[in-house]
Amino acid sequence: MSVAELKERHVAATATVNSLRERLKEKRRLLLDTDVATYARNHGKTAITFCPTDLVCCRTLQGHTGKVYSLDWTQERNRIVSASQDGRFIVWNALTSQKTHATKLPCAYVMTCAFSPNGQSVACGGLDSACSIFNLNSPVDRDENIPASRILTGHKGYVSCCQYVPDQESRLVTSSGDQTCGLWDVTTGQRISVFGGEFPSGHTSDVLSVSVNTSNTNMFVSGSCDATARLWDIRIASRAVRTYYGHAGDVNTVKFFPDGQRFGSGSDDGTCRLFDMRTGHQLQTYGQQHGENEDIPSVKSIAFSMSGRLLFAGYSNGDCHVWDTLMAEVVLNLGSLHNSHEGTISCLGLSSDGSALCTGSYDKKLKIWAFGGHREVI
Amino acid sequence: MNTVVAVDYAFAVEYTGPPIPYEIPQAIPIEIERIPVATVAAAASLPDHLLLPVVQPLPSPDPLKKPPPPPSEHAVSSPTSVIENHIAPDGELSGEVESSGAVVFCSELKGSPDSADGKHERISMESALSYDFGFRSSASVENEFADDDDDDEDDDGVFTSPVRRGGVSFRDSAESSGAASSGVGVEYQVRDEEYDRTVKKGACYRCLKGTRFTEKEACLVCDVKYCSSCVLRAMGSMPEGRKCVSCIGSPIDESKRERLGKSSRMLKRLLSSLEVEQVMKAEKYCEANQLRPEDICVNGKPLTQEEVVLLQRCPCPPLKLKPGYYWYDKVSGFWGKVRFFLFEDVFYSIFSKSLVGHKPDKIISPNLNVGGSIMCNASNGNTGVLINGREITKVELQMLKWAGVQCAGNPHFWVNADGTYQEEGQKNIKGQIWGRTRTKLFCSFLSLPVPSKAVNACGEEVNVMLNRAVHDYIEQRTTQRLLLFGNHGSGSSILFKQAKFLYKSVPFSEDEIENIKLMIQTNIYSYLGILLEAREFFEAEHLVQKRNSLFYDSSSSSELVMNEHATVMPYSISPRLKAFSDSVLEAIASGNLEAIFPASTREHAPLIEELWNDSAIQATYSRKTEIQVLSSVACYFLDQVVEISRVDYEPSKLDILYAERMTSTNGLASMDFLFPQYEFERNDLSEQDSLLRYQLIRLHTQGLGENLKWLDIFEDAQLGIFCIAASDYDEFYENANGEIVNRMMESKKHFEGIVSHPACQKLDFLLILNKFDLLEQKVEKSPLTVCDWFDNFNPVISLHRPNKQSRSAQNCATLAQTAFHYIAVKFKRLFYSLTGNKLFVTMANVLDSDSADAALRYARDILRWKEERPAPNDEMCSTDHSSYSH
Q1: Can you tell me the distance from the alpha carbon of B493 to that of B633, in angstroms, rounded to the nearest whole number?
Q2: Is B360 in a helix, a strand, or coil?
Q3: Are B542 and B646 part of one and the same domain?
Q4: SS3 call for A272
Q5: Is the CB of A97 less than 8 angstroms away from the CB of B710?
Q6: Nearest to A129 among B83, B666, B707 (CB)
Q7: Is residue B181 part of a domain?
Q8: What counts of helices (H) and strands (E) characterise chain A?
Q9: Does any CB of chain A come closer than 8 Å to the CB of residue B186?
Q10: DSSP B655-716
Q11: InterPro entries recorded for this chain (chain A) (predicted)?
Q12: In this structure, are residues B425 and B465 in contact, taking their beta carbons and an 8 Å threshold?
């Protein structure tokens, strides 16, 4: 078979795939006769009402000297790790708002940090294309920094996000600018599997975010600059279980819904979306109308409340909207409250019991928001 | 404290406008003892002259009780809240948690604002004349109002008893309720005199409880003291140590400097040891708490930030540096404080003559470049004897005499750091001051300093100290970031490595060298692979040729078969080597070369040697010009393949420079450095410039993704350096889609992408056209117009008409120089069309260390010009060859 013939076939195959994809999209559109908000409205549901004092900033964590890029809570709900462009990660006691550890990283350009399930070690990744693991109990060195106990190398691009598999102490999932995700064994430092890359069903651009399903820890979802999110099975590295289309811009963040059957995503197109994991349908879009010439703020980070009724979304313009996931309405904007952040909200996370929300911003601060009054945690 | 308040919070401006027709409401001065007290059903007794609406207090069972007992009901907020669990013990706050049926008094209490103006000391209320009080239940309201006996209804603006301050902050409703429900985050800005008066002496400033014997923590800035239950709320997360939230960022009270970093027992009790450690670290090292450099004068000249760093980081620093005036003898390292003579000093000096003058306090590291030069009267001596140009004090003279130095006739001495001294104008060293042990004894007797052991370090060591990392907290500000972009093969990694060789005393650590060695050894296999593949190709080609020739030559096919076996094939190798070659090729094909080969270098080394010496390989290598993919770098390494494949191979400097890729991960690499000073530069550079730290960050365009998602991280960088190989114009490669792409066009695409990225808008760019030597070699043979972008390049070599593009160089410029200018202008125009700014271009050949150095120094010059430039768009003249204007 000659090269020309092969090329011809390739072109034909690509065209077929594209037409099939179009048909699939059309079919989906026909099948999807409603979305969550319409359905809920038809059933007489109303949006949650929030008065501005129901969610209040009760702690301000100051101490970073650069933009905060990432944060994570421990599972025992009182500690936070945050990573900033000042090249250090800080472990905070959320109760006293004091630092317990502050360590300079080997590479200052950090993009992500994560606590291990037992809260004893921290993983940080960034532009050095490596993920460094720090054991918080290890003795500090001469400059009072914690030395990295292990450095996971193997990615060929920046490490954009990392998360431990919740029920496995030594497993870490990373996403990278080399269009792949990786599963690592932290104790040995070996990469167990690579998701994407040369496999045809992988992401076709930088992967920006991962989220591991908490109810079925074999599944994780990744969001990428190719405007898709993909679902992966940790046991099957060869192909993505499903690909979710819908966003019109880079998918900056993905997060599993608390029940593990859905996941949310946030994108540069200014919207958050809710996808059903099993059917592959997009259930709901959470976005606001913007004027023609307005700059659409991109969604930087999202988090669901314990019940999933609320979706917290941090935007590049410093807003932090609280969406009612059922009604697709913004019920509160933390950015409009008095002592809110002054810069892009780059990361946010809920404590494991859902009682407090922590936001990190380019204004170098982290703030902890908690439900005030007798409001129930939802 | 009053002065602080007046400066920071003064907002009343004297009215200078036309007279106003109406009567100005006036605040009536009140005597504190005669403040009308709100009592139950006593509203009618309010004085008539009060202009303000007064909220009638609600009946309370025990109105006169004071202070109120802390409401005992607990927080009704979410029981699982992290926050609530924490503050639950603090009973006095929880009573004010908002419940949904809130009674809200919104600014009803607002009266005529001028009344607050009149009350001079209220200014610290930070213009909070209209705040909202979110009172929860009527019960709590009645409680609070009833207890307002020490407040006056008149100045409604601060219509709160101090007790209520604990729960309600004076911000707005959002925050106040935030503070109420959680009790944290209340930002305290209230500190007025009257308030102070109401605070019992020794009580906590926040909850107003406690006596002078209760343990308290004081703010380092304003000295406000808080008790243990309030300190965490008042000081927040303490990013700069023990300061009230409102004091963060302000310089500390100098009298408290000695307390920096020394934890109190209370803090240790409140926080875990790890937390205390972090707070103390922050307190000690954060920028706001450092000595302000302008407060320290050395030899009459205020210091700069860098000089202070230098002073504190030297091996033998002055102890307990405080703001003040000092003198410093750079040659000998003598350091003294200039004391101003107050009355008592003069009085004292009458009795003790020897105390006249500022004798040295300490001998610090010599040769530090801080402050001005020493004056003759620096230490205010009156003895006539000069040491290093300073007239010494009587005490010192006494010491010299005891040390056995001849001091008759007011000699002028030069004393070196090691204590040797010589007389001015004479060469021979006369002696050692510290030579005799009893000198030191005398010194301690006269309370004069003696040199510590470390002081004997020589001048060079100071520079080493300079290279040492300054503390991170200071480092941030003084570093200028240079971003180095470049495609594969553009030489950006070579430039980076050159910078390491140029500016670092230890360019590469052992680990790094080990990594580079591994990388070279891995690469050599891939080069060999190319060679082996080429061999197979040549072999096949040779076979075909041979067959063809035989086909024409002979008629019998049997003869051909025989012949084939008999003739020595120039490109065939032995089966053993063939097996090895196959395994190498297989590993390359499967892409796991890195995993297999370097690990087994020991076994393969002899094989490689054998393979290399094989005639077939040599024959293939001799035809290297025919192998397209074999780069010049590959040839460089292949020439020494036998050495490289050995286990004990150590890469030379050139090997390191040539090694492709910096790291195996395509990650970013960064290095901090200082430009070492050249002799000829000393004059035109100020001290400060020479101490500027630079951080060179190399970003791999391929490794960091196409969409430049990460670029906003570098928003605060100062300069982008873009490396492009000038010789790329006639080189092509096949991209992932199978299209043949010109490398120069590819570089141009990357350049456009980066330059037009929003994060790079404020960045100046320097384009380094690298590999100028290669351009020189090939431009004669292969015209620049090979690249589509350069199609209108018409150099004026043969024709003698003036050419616009090469006007500056038309007489003497070679074709390569003309080509360089042409490319430079092309890029400048492109840059201008994209950003509207000026692009700086320079040529370089970064394999040559001088050229790399020149390029980086040019980058520094751009940064310096940038500071001097008034407007970003200003066209500026530069003397450099690259300031070729468009």
Answers
A1: 13
A2: coil
A3: yes
A4: strand
A5: no
A6: B666
A7: no
A8: 2, 28
A9: no
A10: HHHHSS-SSTT---EEEEEEPPPPGGGTTTS-HHHHT-EEEEEEEETTTT-SS-TTGGGGTT
A11: G-protein_beta_1-5, WD40/YVTN_repeat-like_dom_sf, WD40_G-protein_beta-like, WD40_PAC1, WD40_repeat_CS, WD40_repeat_dom_sf, WD40_rpt
A12: no
Contact in structure between B772 and B823 (CB atoms under 8 Å): no
Convert the pLDDT of each residue in A290-303 to its tens digit.
777 778 899 999 99
**How big is the CA angle at B638 (ends B633 and B644), to the nearest 5 degrees?**
105
Whether residues B239 and A250 touch (CB distance < 8 A) is answered with no
Q: B72: which 2 tokens? A: 């005992």
What ipTM was assigned to the predicted interfaces of this complex? 0.78
Give which of A113, A236, A220, A133 is closest to A173, Cα–Cα: A220
What is the C-alpha to C-alpha distance for residues B330 and B340, in angstroms, rounded to an integer? 22
> Does one domain contain both B502 and B539?
no
Do B82 and A100 count as a contact with CB atoms less than 8 A apart? Answer: no
Chain B residues near residue A104 by CB distance under 8 angstroms: 472
Q: Which residue range is the domain that position B611 belongs to?
A: 511-546+573-658
Q: Could you please report the per-residue DSSP string of B297-333?
A: EETTEEPPHHHHHHHHHSSSPPSS--SEEEEE-TTT-
Nearest to B238 by CA among B180, B188, B178, B280: B280
DSSP element (H, E) containing B273: helix B273-285
Query: Is residue B279 located within the same domain as residue B384?
Result: no
Distance between CA atoms of residues A339 and A51, nearest Å: 16
Closest Cβ–Cβ partner in A127, A144, A377 for B668: A127
Q: How far is CA B353 from the centre of its chain?
A: 50
Residues B459 and B518 placed together within one structural domain of the fold: no
Same domain, B310 and B459: yes
Which residues on B lie below 8 Å from A374 (Cβ)?
76-78, 97, 99-100
Low-confidence stretches of chain B (pLDDT beneath 50): 1-10, 42-47, 50-51, 54, 59-197, 342-346, 349-355, 454-470, 472-473, 476, 557-562, 564-566, 685, 687, 798-810, 871-886
With CB atoms and an 8 Å threshold, state whether A370 touches B473: no
pLDDT per residue over B323-339, tens digit each?
A: 778 888 877 778 887 76
Last residue of a domain, one of B234, B264, B289: B289
Is B721 among the domain residues? yes
CA distances from residue A173 to A263, A313, B8 in whole angstroms, order as listed: 17, 23, 51
Give the separation between CA A187 and CA A120, rounded to whole angstroms: 13
Nearest CA to CA, how far is A206 from chain B (Å)?
6
Sheet arrangement for strand A320-324: A299-304, A310-315, A320-324, A329-333
- Both B405 and B438 in a single domain? yes
Q: Do B81 and A355 touch (CB under 8 A)?
A: yes
Counted domains in chain B: 4
Name the residue among A104, A129, A373 with its Cβ closest to that of B100.
A373
Which chain A residues are closer than 8 Å to B272 by Cβ?
A: 93, 100
Q: Among A174, A171, A260, A246, which Cα is nearest to A209's?
A: A174
Q: Do the annotations mark residue B215 as ligand-binding?
A: no
Q: Is residue B402 part of a domain?
A: yes
Residues B623 and B730 in one domain: no
Picking from A51, A54, A56 by the largest number of B CB atoms within 10 A of its own CB, the best residue to mutate is: A56
3-state SS assignment for residue A361: strand
**Is B738 contained in some domain?**
yes
**CA atoms lying within 13 Å on the CB side of residue A228:** 17
Same domain for B516 and B497: no
| Digit-coded pLDDT (tens) for A37-90 | 888 888 888 888 887 778 888 889 998 988 999 999 998 868 999 999 888 899
B67 prior amide bond cis, ω within 30? yes
Q: Which among B643, B698, B648 has a CA at the least distance from the CA of B856?
A: B698
Nearest CB partner across the interface for B83, out of A160, A370, A376: A370
- Which residue in chain B has the smallest CA separation from A374? B77
**Cβ-nearest to B278 among A98, A130, A338:** A98
What are B625-632's contacts with CB under 8 Å, separation 24+?
Answer: B626/B534, B627/B530, B627/B531, B627/B534, B629/B530, B630/B527, B630/B530, B630/B531, B630/B534, B631/B489
